[in-house]
């Protein structure tokens, strides 16, 4: 059985990049401190606890994909852009997409105060899909290709890149589906 993903329509294909229109969806998210490499491992048990019943009503929900990660917005004025690097300490927002049947109105309240529920509004995103490890080098290579493609097409983006993981850590590295998303205005 396929794992549920947020609904989207491919609007345009630009070589390895897809321009997608996403419908709104609900996420459970947590903000963690650490490196880009460690953020997912830190956040995963917190978010998994929520969807596996650590909520009011002990409601269990199906695992969906992707698990997303992005640099958290800075609390004060920035002098330089935030970049996701494996060894740099920072704050990251990690999200589990909730099943389409879950809305903010019917989502169970988290027992862990670190878990926030939020509706992600519909949006246009540029996405690049790739296989392989979750290494910084693989991420950097594909983010550069995504930005280069958008620049060549004279398409501007906003905000921080979103790293999207579709497979569990036990999936062999060469079969893992990864994506990087950039928001388009």
Q: Tags for this entry?
A:
185 residues; alpha+beta; Multidrug-efflux Transporter 1 Regulator Bmrr, Chain A; nine-stranded antiparallel β-sheet; 2 helices; 18% helix; globular
**Poorly predicted parts:** 77-83
Query: Biggest sheet: strands side by side, in what order?
Result: 1-2-7-9-8-4-5-3-6
**How is the main sheet built?**
9 strands, antiparallel
Question: Tell me, what's the shape?
Answer: globular
The span between the termini is 35 Å
Mean pLDDT: 92
The CATH topology is Multidrug-efflux Transporter 1 Regulator Bmrr, Chain A
CATH C-level class: Alpha Beta
> Which series of helices and strands comes N to C?
EEEHEEEEHEE
Structural class, by secondary structure, is alpha+beta
Number of strands: 9
Please give the count of helices: 2
**CATH homologous superfamily placement:** Regulatory factor, effector binding domain
Number of domains: 1
Oligomer: single chain
Q: Which percent range describes the beta-strand content?
A: 35-45%
Radius of gyration over C-alpha positions, nearest whole angstrom: 16 Å
Secondary structure: helix percent = 10-25%
CATH architectural arrangement: Alpha-Beta Barrel
What would you say this structure looks like, in words?
- It is a single chain.
- The protein has helices at 36-51, 136-152; strands spanning 8-14, 17-22, 25-35, 67-71, 89-97, 116-120, 123-131, 158-165, 177-184.
- The chain has a 9-stranded antiparallel sheet, covered by helices on one side.
- The protein starts with 7 loop residues before the first strand and ends with a strand.
- The chain has a single domain, classed as Alpha-Beta Barrel (Multidrug-efflux Transporter 1 Regulator Bmrr, Chain A).
- It has 2 helices and 9 strands, in the order βββαββββαββ.
- The protein is an alpha+beta fold and 185 residues long.
- 18% of the residues lie in helices and 37% in strands.
